[in-house]
Amino acid sequence: MNQILQDAPTDTLPADTSPTATISADSAPAEPSPPDDAPPAPSHPRFTKPQRVAFVQSAWHRDVVAECRHAFLDEIAARHIARDRVDIFEVPGSFEIPLHAQLLAKTRRYTAIVAAGLVVDGGIYRHEFVADTVIKALMDVQLRTEVPVFSAVLTPQQFHETQAHFDFFRKHFATKGIEVATACAETLLSLERLRSQVAAGII
User: Which residues bind 5-amino-6-(D-ribitylamino)uracil (predicted)?
Assistant: First the structure.
């Protein structure tokens, strides 16, 4: 049975962590003070109601996908959704993400669900088929449940298990983590406004 994972830096994970094991949380290092001439941190609007997000990630190439999670958590915290308001779940591969997303959405515990995974060549399915199926299924979950679902499931055209490719995709997943956090927060704010207007009979 899948368990909620507590986020921790990748290098603190034991080498034999199983896909359903719980990851222990460590204390975050103190942030260095910005220099006096540093530009002010961007100001983001706050939510009217409490938000809770489920982050569902695949275990395939866990160390690469983890970069997305780390970047997501940093950015979503800057946008006023604290780390303890994000529950992290891990599944064997990207193909298993949609069913977990649907079950989580049906609990009504989460105001948003984020999916992250790396789909590459190999196995019994073509990677293009898997990625297309996952994206369509996640959209179906979103439309059926009205819980927004965001995807950072990536499908590189060419992926080789070399250090250069791993380094490139770690950086790429970090960028995608920021992008999906931005999309998540901005969509939740937009939905808050829209639902408020609908409730008030404005639209």
Answer: 60, 94-96, 118-120, 151
Q: Any binding-site annotation on 119?
A: yes
CA distance 186 to 170: 25
Instruction: Determine contact, residues 55/163, Cβ cutoff 8 Å.
Output: no
| In-domain check, residue 12 | no
> Which residue in the list 62, 85, 126, 170 is annotated as catalytic?
126
Predicted TM-score of the model (pTM)? 0.76
Q: Which of 188, 3, 194 is nearest to 80 (CA)?
A: 188
**Cβ(147)–Cβ(100) below 8 Å:** no
The answer to whether residue 195 is catalytic is: no
Q: Is 39 a member of any domain?
A: no
Domains in the chain, number: 1
Say if residue 18 carries a ligand binding annotation.
no
Distance of alpha carbon 59 from alpha carbon 92, whole angstroms: 5
Task: Provide the CATH number for the domain around residue 116.
Answer: 3.40.50.960
Nearest to 154 by CA among 124, 120, 121: 120
84 by DSSP, 3-state: which?
Answer: helix
Domain of 120 in residue numbering reads as 46-199
Residues 13-44: pLDDT tens digits?
Answer: 333 433 333 333 344 455 566 566 766 767 89
